[in-house]
Amino acid sequence: MLVILVAQVAVAPISSAGIIPPSTPEPAQGDVNLIFSAPGTPARYGANQIVRVDIGNINFIKGCLPGPTGAAYPDYIQPSADLYIVDAGRTITNTTPLIDIAGQETTVFGITGGAFFDAKLALTGPDGKAGSGTYDVVVDECQNGMFDTGQDTIIRDAFRVDVDNVVPGFSTEAAEWHALKDNARARGGDVTQSSRSPP
Questions:
Q1: CA of 84: how far to CAs of 1, 16, 196, in Å?
Q2: Quick one: which of 130, 125, 121 has its CA closest to 164?
């Protein structure tokens, strides 16, 4: 069973040369959709499972504001965005810094129309960092580490974790993915930096 979550993004006119960072963020031009691998509304995961977006889409954004670290990655050839898992219901307003509950956001790269596939967001507990509870997902379109109103999207109650729902064994896929995320976190920005377009 596939569950489609759609978030509406407000669109307002804006002018930007695209060469110098604009004084306001360029508004998103469409909806953001996430279809999770687990059934239910919200999607429900048990113990030691990978929280995965099977299919999703992001927006193409050329005008970005620098974030807390001074970085921002406007889209050039293809759209890209960072997905953050945050506790459900967290208050997020314009310029709120974003921190993923697993310690590392997930970067996705869109193709035609901003579609992306098979984005692994986190591993559930007890072996992973996504414990029991309900979570929101924030789509950071400019990858600047903060929420930009009118440009970024919050998917409220995106998925739920129940670690008491035991899944037999610890899959090889989950173990390999967990090791990959730990390696990326240890190497810092080096892993993703090489894949991004120049600012």
A1: 24, 27, 18
A2: 125
Average pLDDT over residues 32-46: 93
Q: 117: which strand partners?
A: 55
Q: What are phi and psi of 176, to 5 degrees?
A: -65, -40
Does 72 score more than 80 pLDDT? Answer: yes
Q: Which helix (H) or strand (E) holds 33?
A: strand 32-36
What is the rounded distance in angstroms from the CA atom of residue 114 to the CA atom of residue 165? Answer: 34
Residue identified by tokens 């960092």 is: 129
More confidently predicted of 2 and 30: 30
Q: Could you tell me if residue 69 is inside a domain?
A: yes
Distance of alpha carbon 144 from alpha carbon 74, whole angstroms? 9
pLDDT at 170 over 60: no
Q: What pLDDT does 135 receive?
A: 98
Joined tokens for residue 40: 């239910």
Look at residue 24 and tell me if it is in a domain.
yes
Domain that includes residue 151, residue range: 4-193
Say which residue, 190 or 47, is predicted with more confidence: 47
Task: Assess if residue 98 is contained within a domain.
Answer: yes
Number of domains within the chain: 1
Q: What is the mean pLDDT of residues 50-58?
A: 95
φ/ψ bin of 103: left (φ > 0), alpha (ψ from -120 to 50), beta (otherwise): left
Is 199 within a domain? no
